[in-house]
């Protein structure tokens, strides 16, 4: 099993929305490294830290899980979608997405300042300068610390 951090802006798609919907396809990712994580590395059962970015304050809201492996992102073919890619074809898709399912909200939201203040998390990717990827691998030790802090 692997562990991940996936960022979403709460006004676009929040953990509350995932709880309501139960699952969602993680569409709209248009970064090759993040896409490759979904295509090549994410497996059913992998655990996800659901991170609210562009929030006040940003931070980890809870846990999700990968429920289906990567498939072509349908939005790349939809001319009305902001994620349409004219270079993508059904025969040669460019963008992929995994399905994510809701697991739990943390009892304690863990803000970015709290993450930064915890010396045991200092080498976590989300805390590194210039690390802006919307999908990042997380070490098990960091996942365990955060689930404990979050009260999961």
UniProtKB/TrEMBL annotation:
- Protein name as catalogued: EVE domain-containing protein
PANTHER family per UniProt: THYMOCYTE NUCLEAR PROTEIN 1
Its taxonomic path starts at: Bacteria, Pseudomonadati, Bdellovibrionota, Bdellovibrionia, Bdellovibrionales
Report domain EVE positions: 2-148
Q: What is the superkingdom listed in this entry's lineage?
A: Bacteria
* InterPro entries assigned: 5hmC_binding, EVE_domain, PUA-like_sf, THYN1-like_EVE
What the entry lists under SUPFAM superfamilies is as follows: PUA domain-like
- Record the organism: Bdellovibrio bacteriovorus (strain ATCC 15356 / DSM 50701 / NCIMB 9529 / HD100)
Can you tell me where the transmembrane regions are?
A: none
């Amino acid at each position: 099993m692997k562990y991940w951090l996936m960022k979403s802006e709460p006004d676009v798609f929040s953990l509350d929305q995932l709880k309501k919907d139960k699952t969602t396809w993680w569409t709209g990712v248009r970064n090759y490294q993040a896409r490759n994580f979904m295509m090549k590395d994410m497996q059913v059962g992998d655990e996800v830290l659901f991170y609210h970015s562009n929030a006040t304050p940003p931070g980890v809201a809870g846990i999700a899980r990968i429920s289906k492996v990567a498939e072509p992102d349908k939005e790349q073919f939809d001319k009305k979608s902001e994620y349409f890619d004219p270079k993508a074809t059904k025969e040669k898709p460019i963008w992929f997405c995994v399905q994510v399912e809701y697991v739990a909200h943390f009892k304690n939201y863990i803000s970015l300042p709290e993450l930064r203040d915890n010396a045991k998390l200092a080498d976590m990717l989300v805390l590194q300068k210039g690390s802006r990827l919307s999908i990042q691998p997380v070490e098990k030790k960091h996942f365990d610390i955060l689930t404990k802090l979050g009260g999961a």
